[in-house]
Write the structure tokens for this entry.
Amino acid sequence: APLVGVFALQGDVREHVRVLEGLGARTRPVRRAADLTGLDGIVLPGGESSVMDRLAGLMGLKEPLADAIGAGLPAYGTCAGMILLAREIQNPAPGQGSLGVLDVTVRRNAFGAQVDSFEADLEVPAVSAEPVHAVFIRAPAVLRAGGEVEVLASVPASRLSAAPPELGLDDAAQVPVAVRQGRVLATSFHPEVTGDHSFHREFLRGL
Ligand code: GLN
């Protein structure tokens, strides 16, 4: 069975571990650089990306993690994990950086506050024949996706809490919420907290 690391300095680590082990993977919490040795893949959970970024820096994990993913370690980030993977954050917290291994610009909390959380059934033909049930909790949106980034699912820009033109989008735009670039997969939403594990299955399939 593949050995999947779960970034464990902050976030909904246990939920990912439960899903991954339920699908037959072995898991290892990742808190320091040495924990990366021998992994077949790594998951970056939902949580608070600015805290994750700061703690990863303090623990000396940030650079080794970015290097490992850059060198081909398959990665899957959900929500805050997507932000951590991104090349650019449009509205970072003060001092917040990222790993820069996924060529997208993300906007944090793009759909509003906690109270604006929503659920949607998304068409994701690349991942599942059935619609994927998605939960968005203070979720990021992808405002720009680089040429090598494959958009797997989108929602209408009308879902955004800011006027799309203010974000450089037109009102009819579709905003990516699931993307893939090579072996890096990211979703704005949290399959680890719904019963729909299509994305985890898709991630494990590639390992
Ligand atoms: N808004 C959070 C952040 O900026 C992400 C929320 C989540 O992971 N549910 O990291």
Summary: The radius of gyration is 16 Å.
